[in-house]
Amino acid sequence: MDPLLSQSSTLTLTHARAAKLGIEAANHAAEIKLRAERKAGEMLAQLERKPGQRTDNQPVDTMSTGSEYKEVLDEQEISYRQGARWQELAEIPEETVEAKGLEVLEVTLL
Question: Is the Cβ–Cβ distance between 96 and 104 less than 8 Å?
């Protein structure tokens, strides 16, 4: 076999292995991220809220601090939409997540 061709084959195999490890690492990181978001959603769902309380017709200096939920979102700089999304993830049964893996979480978010 031509030495140049052999070296090329070795480099191609090395790059293929590195790419596969890169994909595996990215998938692992995505799984960790989604599991953390599910846990955050579970925690947010447990916080006290004050539904139906209007604040648009009260002067700012007379308003109470608001709900525990809103305070946490504000402190952690989490948008309402992001908090709702994490809570949606948390509602997916653990058995479904384990059986389907990341694909069920990714499809649910679309």
Answer: yes
